[in-house]
């Protein structure tokens, strides 16, 4: 029987560290359904008390990464008092490093984002990915670090955003039957281009499910297996013409596909 667990992810900054911890660990428990609720920018005791009261009513597991000592101490005390399971993702580490270095920590939330140029690089890359998603502006292909090509439902957009979050400027182009390929695609380094494909049967199921989600008939030209095979064949011929790397995303997670792409990039694009 599947059990449900609610997790409160709490931070006095954006909460990315706590969220990453929660997501990395919960996938190890496939028989449990986790409801992760994120509460960033908790900067005062009054907001914290209200949030913890909610967590207590829901018997939630609390993961927190507070930098301010008063917020850390209050959360730990509250959870102990109310028998709430909790994990302090920062406080113990700060204490240990303070003992090791004999230096008082600044305890300033979000300071890593203020000083880390990679943070701003990621923001710029995400804005780039949104601007040049789905081939909306072909000029983006000439400016991109990575160009993704693929027929509909080959994970182009989520993959673009995942790579953008790693700091790479990504543009993608949907390959639509009988629509001309922008000339810019043939003007860039083929090693920056990655052709995405999928197994016809899997793509057929994905497209049918998408139609059902829209409340439409699942059996359409869009989801027709013969049409899908024709689209994939046309895409593969384009990939051969370009000479780019082809990746079959069937049975691959976004992370796995992204790793293959990053391992194949020219050295001048790697950090």
UniProtKB/TrEMBL annotation:
EC code: 2.7.11.32, 2.7.4.27
Key words of the record: Kinase, Nucleotide-binding, Serine/threonine-protein kinase, Transferase
Top-level EC class as recorded in UniProt: transferase
Cited InterPro entries: Kinase-pyrophosphorylase (IPR005177), PPDK_reg (IPR026565)
Catalytic activity: N(tele)-phospho-L-histidyl/O-phospho-L-threonyl-[pyruvate, phosphate dikinase] + phosphate + H(+) = N(tele)-phospho-L-histidyl/L-threonyl-[pyruvate, phosphate dikinase] + diphosphate; N(tele)-phospho-L-histidyl/L-threonyl-[pyruvate, phosphate dikinase] + ADP = N(tele)-phospho-L-histidyl/O-phospho-L-threonyl-[pyruvate, phosphate dikinase] + AMP + H(+)
One of the Pfam families matching this protein, by short name: Kinase-PPPase
Binding site for ADP: 150-157
Signal sequence coordinates: none
GO molecular function, one term: ADP binding
TM ranges: none
UniProt record similarity statement: Belongs to the pyruvate, phosphate/water dikinase regulatory protein family. PDRP subfamily.
HAMAP family linked to this entry: PDRP
Reported function: Bifunctional serine/threonine kinase and phosphorylase involved in the regulation of the pyruvate, phosphate dikinase (PPDK) by catalyzing its phosphorylation/dephosphorylation.
The protein, known as: Putative pyruvate, phosphate dikinase regulatory protein
